[in-house]
Structure to design on (624 residues):
């Protein structure tokens, strides 16, 4: 939520910042801005624009190229509004009233009203409605008071601020100096050759083009960044902190659309390959033909995982839907009781957590504020925290005691697709491996599911081949006002996910329901105007869901059915269907979700909407 970039060195900062903002635009896109500096005591060059980064880019391109080359320090921001409407005035960077400091900020300063009143008492005036402007004035207050020592002023101000922040500050008097800090909101510093230049970002994606050496700031750390010198880091109490430099490796091709019109479509079609990556080196066929699952997290924490009598899964959004599938997988294969919690509820609910509990945190970004807070709560109660994360080196990956990366590569489209199937793949491997270790799954069943799991990539390809058919089907759904998605068992969370995908990008109201629950309310809505997407694949509940479909049809409801290939019974019942290959029921979600993703995608495209950056949403929700 909100993207931050920064650059300091010998190159022109503006193009680096603009490119970085484009790469971070998925985090928020209601306004953007940059501040540039080059010469001592010269006023900052400030550019802001409402809307997308391309609007800002157009404004910045007016700078004369010789001048631009001399502006070698800068900070930039792409915003997802929390305080104050999207506007140029509320866009970052914000300047202090003295004009001597410029700041970009991601997060929320919760006590900003109180601080604002205090600062007003000292004569400070405010132009925007943001909490960020309060923070820059607060830093300015200490800066002016303490002989313009920026590091000291930042630490004094942050000691007064309550809330979450990732910030980068620049000062007019010294263009060769940036100060960055974080608490509960990510910030990465990329180190250029011989410390001659530094790159900053909310995540590592804008940096990897320039460097693979990075520092992930920890909570309540402040970094002092000056070209020609190694970064020094202090804690909020001004004591020195260790500087840990890490190598980061991100496939840059994942950051482009690769010939697809949208990232979302590219990411849907990447799934067979992503699932192969998720399983690589983990699902192993031995020479005798039998399978085994190797997960280092399980080997290293085997005793604790085996002892667990209770698993709590915490997550938000699509990751929470993956958690619901994880519950069924773990209960079926490991016979351990599993609860699935919205992280935002769990963290404030005084939940019962015991020392032998295992808390599984699922997150694509690894930065979701509520999930991170839920982890901290679980750790404080002594539970083992197991992360299932995509964002390598992310805050959740680092906060968890152990875990498994899903390895599907950067996901850029705001609506999650490949991360969902990656999360389910990892949950399946975890449930299989743990069930095997516990002896709660028979060898025959273990071998059968492992072997079917390895066929998922090719079966996904078969489903994706029906893209054109789904595109045609989507035509008549663009006019719908409401959708119902129904599924049972393993397909119930898929129904929830299908409805969420449609809502997120097409702005059509949709609800997911366990099919039998339809009778307890939603059936009142059924008429010929309302499309009902029903997942009716061959499993233990097949005949039950056929009955649910008949209930819909007797009320003139129009059904789009997701069925098992060759199911003539359902084909005779409904006029619209998409077939998926037959697979073990616990693996069906990996296939049945694909038509849902494609349907939402095509409906949104046909409605002329921005599928990669839907209104009001953000990819990485770093505020609670
Ligand atoms: C946002 C995204 C969703 C995502 C959710 C949880 O709402 O738009 O796609 O499912 O956050 O994010 P996480 O990164 O923790 O999986």
């Amino acid at each position: 939520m909100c993207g931050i970039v920064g650059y300091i060195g010998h190159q022109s900062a503006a193009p680096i910042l603009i490119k970085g903002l484009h790469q971070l635009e998925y985090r928020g896109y209601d306004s953007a801005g940059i501040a540039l500096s080059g010469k001592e005591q010269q006023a900052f060059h400030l550019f802001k624009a409402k809307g997308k980064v391309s609007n800002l880019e157009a404004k910045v391109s007016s700078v004369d190229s010789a001048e631009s080359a001399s502006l070698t320090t800068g900070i930039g921001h792409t915003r997802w509004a929390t305080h104050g409407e999207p506007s140029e005035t509320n866009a970052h960077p914000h300047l202090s009233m003295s004009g001597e400091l410029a700041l970009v900020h991601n997060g929320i300063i919760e006590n900003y009203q109180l601080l604002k009143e205090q600062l007003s008492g000292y004569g400070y005036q405010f132009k925007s409605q943001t909490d960020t402007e309060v923070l820059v004035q607060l830093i300015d207050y200490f800066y002016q008071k303490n002989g313009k020592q920026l590091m000291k002023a930042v630490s004094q101000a942050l000691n007064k601020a309550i809330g979450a922040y990732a910030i980068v500050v620049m000062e007019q008097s010294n263009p060769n100096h940036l100060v960055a800090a974080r608490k509960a909101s990510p910030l990465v510093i990329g180190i250029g050759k011989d410390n001659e230049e530094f790159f900053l970002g909310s995540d590592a994606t804008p940096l990897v083009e320039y460097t693979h050496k990075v520092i992930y700031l920890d909570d309540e750390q402040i970094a002092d960044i000056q070209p020609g010198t190694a970064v020094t880091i202090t804690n909020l109490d001004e004591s020195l902190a260790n500087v840990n430099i890490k190598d980061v490796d991100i496939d840059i091709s994942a950051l482009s659309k690769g010939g697809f019109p949208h990232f979302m479509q590219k990411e849907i079609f990447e799934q067979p390959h992503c699932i192969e990556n998720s399983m690589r080196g983990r699902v192993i066929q031995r020479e005798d033909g039998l399978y085994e699952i190797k997960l280092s997290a399980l080997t290293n924490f085997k005793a604790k995982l085996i002892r667990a009598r209770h698993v709590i899964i915490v997550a938000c959004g699509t990751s929470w839907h993956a958690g619901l599938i994880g519950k069924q997988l773990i209960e079926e294969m490991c016979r351990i009781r599993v609860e699935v919690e919205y992280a935002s509820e769990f963290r404030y609910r005084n939940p019962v957590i015991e020392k032998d509990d295992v808390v599984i945190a699922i997150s694509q970004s690894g930065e979701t504020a509520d999930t991170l807070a839920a982890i901290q709560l679980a750790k404080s109660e002594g539970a083992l925290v197991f992360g299932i994360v995509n964002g390598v080196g992310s805050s959740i990956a680092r906060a968890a005691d152990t875990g498994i990366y899903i390895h599907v590569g950067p996901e850029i489209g705001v609506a999650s697709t490949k991360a969902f199937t990656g999360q389910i793949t990892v949950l399946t491997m975890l449930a299989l491996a743990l069930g095997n270790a516990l002896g709660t799954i028979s060898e025959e069943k273990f071998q059968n599911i492992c072997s079917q799991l390895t066929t998922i990539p090719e079966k996904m390809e078969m489903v994706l081949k029906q893209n054109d058919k789904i595109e045609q089907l989507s035509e008549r759904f663009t006019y719908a006002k409401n959708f119902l998605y129904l599924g049972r068992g393993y397909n119930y969370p898929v129904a929830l996910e299908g409805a969420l995908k449609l809502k997120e990008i097409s702005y059509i109201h949709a609800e997911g329901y366990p099919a039998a629950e339809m009778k307890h309310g939603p059936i009142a809505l059924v008429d010929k105007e309302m499309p009902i997407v029903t997942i009716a694949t061959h499993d233990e509940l097949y005949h039950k869901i056929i009955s649910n479909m008949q209930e819909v049809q007797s009320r003139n409801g129009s059904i789009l059915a997701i069925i098992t290939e060759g199911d003539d019974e359902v084909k005779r019942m409904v006029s619209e269907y998409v077939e998926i290959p037959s697979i073990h029921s616990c693996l069906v979600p990996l296939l049945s979700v694909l038509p849902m993703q494609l349907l939402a995608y095509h409906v949104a495209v046909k409605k002329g909407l921005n599928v990669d950056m839907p209104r009001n949403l953000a990819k990485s929700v770093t505020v609670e």
Q: What stands out?
A: The chain has 22 helices and 26 strands. The domain at 254-454 is CATH 3.40.50.10490 (Rossmann fold). Residues 418-438 form the longest helix (21 residues).
